[in-house]
Amino acid sequence: MVRASDVLYYLVHPQELRSIAQWKVWHTPIHERQPEKETLSEKICFHFLDLTSRSFSAVIQELHPELLMPITIFYLILRGLDTVEDDTSIPAKTKEPVLRNFRDVLEQDGWSFDGNRPEEKDRELLVQFAHVVTEFKKLKPEYREVLKDITGKMGNGMADFCNNAEFNELGVNKVKEYDLYCYYVAGVVGEGLTRLFVISGFGNPKLLERTDLHYSMGLFLQKINIIRDVREDADDHRRFWPREIWSKYVDEWDDLFKPENRQAALNCSSEMVLNALEHVDQCLFYLAGIKEQSVFNFCAIPQSMAIATLELCFRNPVMFDRNIKITKGQACRLMIESTQNLQVLCESYRLYVRKILRKNTPRDPNFLKISLACGKIEKFIESIFPSQRPEDLQKRQSKAVEKLDSKKAAEDAEARRDTFYLMLAVFTTLSVLSLLMVGVAYFMGARFDVAYHELKKGNFKPPAGSGMDDLIHKYDHGEL
User: Fold this and answer.
1) Residue 228 annotated to the active site
2) For this structure, is 358 an active site residue?
3) Catalytic one among 238, 262, 354, 447?
4) Are 331 and 59 in contact (CB under 8 A)?
5) Quick check: pTM over 0.85?
6) Mean of the pLDDT values across residues 161-174?
7) In sequence order, what are the residues at sequence separation of 6 or more whose Cβ sits closer than 8 angstroms to the Cβ of residue 220?
8) Is 203 helix (H, G, I), strand (E, B) or coil?
9) Distance between CA 201 and CA 203 in Å, rounded?
C-alpha cells in the first residue's frame, strides 16, 4: 500500500519517480530465468532467495545461466551460516559445531536446522535447507569445491569470533580485528565469487593473483552495512565498531547514542567512513576485470548502492536514532547507471565522493584525511577515464576558436547595428528640433517666403539698413 508520505516525497522529488518508472518499464534483463523448466527444489531455492534478499535477488536471477544456480546456492548457504551466527539466542556450545561443520552438511541429504528462535526472519531457510543441499549436489564439481571451501573458511572464522569471550562481551576491539571479522563474513565471499567468475570464463584470471582486490570488494560492502546498522546492532547488544576508534570520542559505547554527545558521535562515524573509503579505488579496479555484462551488473549494483549509502551516513545524526537507507528512487537510478559500463559507474562514484566532500567540515578532526581519501578516489578515476584526453582537448580547442570567431562576428554585427541606430537617433532628434525651431519661428512672424525668393536670386546676405523693410513690402500681398 502506498503511504501518503511516499506520495508527498515523490511529488517533491519527481526525478526519483522518473527513475522508478524507467527501471520498471524499460529495464530488460540480459538473461532471464525459465521457471517452466525448473525442478521443485530449484523453485523453492529461488523462493527463499526472494525472501532472504531484497537487494541481491533480482541481480542474481539475471545472471548468465552458467552461474545462475551456483551463485544462488552460494548465497543461500552463506545466508544460512549468517542466520546461525547472528542468532544470539543459540548457545555458543550449540552454535560452534554447526558453524564449523556447515561445509560438511552440504553433502548430507535431508539436513536441516530448527534451533533458531521463532522470530528469526530467515529461520525457515534452515528448516527447509534440504532443498539447498539437493541443488548443491547438482552443481559442477569445480563449483562445489569452491562453495565448500569458502563455507569452511567462513564457518570457522565465525566460530572463532563466537568463542571469543571478549568479542561477545565488549565487541570488536582493534581495527585489525574489525578487518578480520569483515573478511570472514564478506571478504571470503569475494574470494569465492572471483573463483567462480574465473572458472566460468567471465573474469580475468589476474583477479585471482590480486587478492587485495576481491578482499576490498567484500570488506567495503560489509563495512557500509556495519556503519549503517549501528543503531540496530546496538539495540541487539552487538558492537562491531572497533573500540580503538570509538574510544577516541566517548568513554563508553552507549555514550555514542546520547543526544548531548551527538557531535562526538558524528566525528566517530566520520572515522568509520574514512576507514571504508580506503577500499573504493580497489573495488573499481576489480570491476575492470569482469568480462560478462550480467556478472558486471551483479558486482556493480551493490557497490554503487554502498557508496550512496556511505554518503547518506556521512555526518548524518539520524543514524544514531534509527536505521536509515537510500530511497527506492535513488536505488533505481543507481541500478540504471550500474548496468551500463564502468565509466558510467565511475561517474556515479565521483558524484557521491564529491557529495561527501561537500558535507566534510573543518570542525571534524578527520577533515583532512577524508579530503585526501576523496581526492585519491577522484585521481584514480581520472587515471582510467581522463576527462581531458588529447583528442577531446583538441576538439574543445577547435570549438573554442570557432566559438570565439562567431562571438567576434556577432559583436561586430552588433556594433554596426548600434552605430546605425545611434545615427538614426541623432538624425531623428535633429530633424525634430529643426521642425520645432522652424515652426516656432513661423508663428513668431518669420518670412520664409522672402528668404526663399532671395535665395533663388543668389542673394545670400540680407540687405543693410532700410533695404530689409523695402524687401519685405515688395513681397507683400496688398489684396490680402
Assistant:
1) yes
2) no
3) 238
4) no
5) no
6) 75
7) 276, 279, 280, 283, 303, 306
8) strand
9) 6
DSSP states along 253-322: GGGGGSGGGHHHHHHHHHHHHHHHHTTHHHHHHHHTTB-SHHHHHHHHHHHHHHHHHHHHHTT-GGGGTS
Cα separations in angstroms, 173 against 2, 244, 479: 43, 6, 128
Q: Tell me: the pLDDT tens digits for 182-211?
A: 998 889 999 999 999 999 999 999 999 999
Pick the catalytic residue from 181, 286, 296, 349: 181
State the residue for C-alpha cell 577500499: 279
Rounded CA-CA distance 293/282 in Å is 19
- pLDDT tens sequence across 284-328: 999 999 999 999 999 999 999 999 999 999 999 999 999 999 998
Under 8 Å between Cβ of 317 and 258: no
Q: Please tell me the distance from the alpha carbon of residue 314 to that of residue 359, in angstroms, as a whole number.
A: 8
Q: Which of 113, 240, 298, 320 is catalytic?
A: 298
Which residue in the list 33, 79, 103, 228 is annotated as catalytic?
A: 228
Amino acid at position 176, single letter: K
Exposure letters 122-154 (e unless 16+ CB within 10 A, then b): bbbbbeebebbbbbbeebeeebbebbbebbbbb
- Active-site residue, 181 included: yes
Whether residue 33 lies in the annotated active site: no
